[in-house]
Amino acid sequence: MSQNLPNEIVIDILSRLPVKSIVKFKCVSKPWRSLFTDPKFIELHLNRAIAKNSHCLLVRHVADPDEKIYSKWNKAILGDINKLEVPLQNKGNNYLTVKSGNSMICVGRYWDDEEIYSFRNAETFEELARLEVPGQSITNYFSIVGCSNGLVCLNEANFNGSYHSLNSFFWNPATREFRALPKYFINKFTSSLVVVGLGFAFVPITNDYKVVRILYFIESKVHEVEVFSLNTDCWSKVDADIQCNITSQLSQAYVNGSSHWMATKRDDDGNPHYSILSFNMVEETFGMLMLPKCCEKDHFPMHKLLTMFEGSLVVVVYNPYQLNKSCDIWVMNEYGVAKSWTKTFSFGNEVEVMIPLGIFDNGEIIMEKEKDGELYSFDPRAKQRKSLSMYQPARIVKYIESLVSPQGRNSIGGSVSAPSTSQVETGVVIQQQNGSV
Fold first, then answer.
1. Which of the four, 79, 214, 242, 367, has the lowest number of CB atoms within 10 Å?
2. Neighbours of 227 (CB within 10 A)
3. What is residue 297's DSSP assignment?
4. Do residues 141 and 114 touch, judged by C-beta distance below 8 A?
5. Sign of dihedral through CA atoms 88, 89, 92, 97?
6. Residue 99 — very low, low, confident or very high, per pLDDT cuts 50/70/90?
7. What CA–CA distance (Å, rounded) separates 295 from 383?
8. Average of pLDDT values for 31-38?
């Protein structure tokens, strides 16, 4: 009966399978392997997943403070002492001490811990699977720059992502493909530099995945910008005259084809004024967007978080130091129009100081407890919160599994055709090794 199935029916059936099954079925025959790497089939499979809204959350965080152990560096010094538990009262210190007999042993900085990647249910936040990044980082830590169509952009960083190196990577957790992006350094290290801005997105018009990296050269006090294109598989320099300071290294909002960062610029009197720096991924040009009037000036100690919700830019304005101070959520209803900013919610910290970090698709706000860094989801309508059972530093992004390859073999062209069933070699499908996905 299978020999009588039309090709389009075979394709339709296979395009509905989970990635894990398709990875296994690549071993069935060469024709099937060829089908599963066909750009048209990859697009069809992705569109099926999007239509089903079968997304989850990709989460990166460090070990729970209750489970923190001393680092490999300390293990080498202290010998056979195993899993020294860190007292909770010491977890905020730069260095930790653990009592051993009559001595107090310094066991290093508390943040020297393992980073954990996992898939989580988008509704319940239940852990679905633990992940292992196939590549190695010199710093032992990565930072999630962004995620699009199942392809994740990672950047080498320190434990909390406050420092980023020039090394970037693409990773597909579903297929376990991983690659380092080509190295490209604009200024040949003639000046000390820092990475002040990173963004990643899929560009539908050109069917391309792009990374933008903004560098600041400390001695010359100038910015330089690089863009990596997966279609061309190389970095290129973008002419840009950036006259502002970027205050958020990772773009938390990709809206209207542009990545966005919160930025400041000082007036003639030295007073900082806030605005939004945007980078159009198609035209590869920068622009500036105005904030709500109440957010433009630096009213200490009010802080500002730039994020997105339902395809719109969102600015959360809050006071992280005092209780009973309002936290305001502003939404830009019409992109690029300053007058369209609308305040949708206001709420206060009634019991303890909570710092907003982002917004889930269901409208709940990701909050960090200022006292110990524990993360919560907060419903501003019901004014209820629940623990996410993890601590800062953390990064949470929307994820949908796909066959998109980090190698860049996904350009669209031609029509996809299924292999004839007579070509499919019979035999045992080789089982994947046990893994996290």
1. 79
2. 18
3. B
4. no
5. negative
6. very low
7. 24
8. 84
Compute the distance between CA of residue 261 and CA of residue 249 in angstroms, rounded to an integer: 7
Q: State yes or no: pLDDT of 45 exceeds 90.
A: yes
Summarised one tens digit per residue, pLDDT across range 8-32 is 888 888 889 999 999 888 887 787 7
pLDDT tier for residue 182 given thresholds of 50, 70 and 90: very high
Check if the beta carbon of residue 247 is closer than 8 Å to that of residue 264: yes
Helix (H, G, I), strand (E, B) or coil at 286: strand
pTM above 0.85? no
CB neighbour class for 352 (10 Å; exposed up to 12, middle 13-18, buried from 19): exposed
230 vs 207, 210, 260, CA distance in Å? Answer: 9, 6, 21
Question: Cα angle at 326 between 321 and 330, to 5 degrees?
Answer: 115
**382 Cβ contact list (under 8 Å, min separation 6):** none
In angstroms, the CA 34 to CA 425 distance is 13
Written as one string, the DSSP assignment of 329-344 is: EEEESSTT-GGGEEEE
Pairing between strand 164-172 and 151-157?
A: antiparallel
**Would you state the torsion angle of the CA atoms of residues 340, 344, 348, 354, taken in this order, to the nearest 10 degrees?**
-80
Distances (CA, A) of 108 to 64, 66, 71, 72, 311: 17, 16, 7, 10, 43
Helix (H) or strand (E) holding 92: none
- Residues 135, 178 contacting (CB under 8 angstroms): yes
Question: Are 330 and 280 spatial neighbours (Cβ–Cβ below 8 Å)?
Answer: no
Rounded Cα distance, 313 and 298, in Å: 20
- State residue 298's pLDDT score: 62
Q: Which long-range contacts (CB under 8 A, 24 or more apart) does 180-186 make?
A: 180/135, 181/211, 181/228, 181/235, 182/228, 182/233, 182/234, 182/235, 184/226, 184/228, 184/234, 184/235, 186/215, 186/224, 186/226, 186/237
Q: How far apart are CA 197 and CA 283, in angstroms?
A: 18
What CA–CA distance (Å, rounded) separates 203 from 221?
A: 31
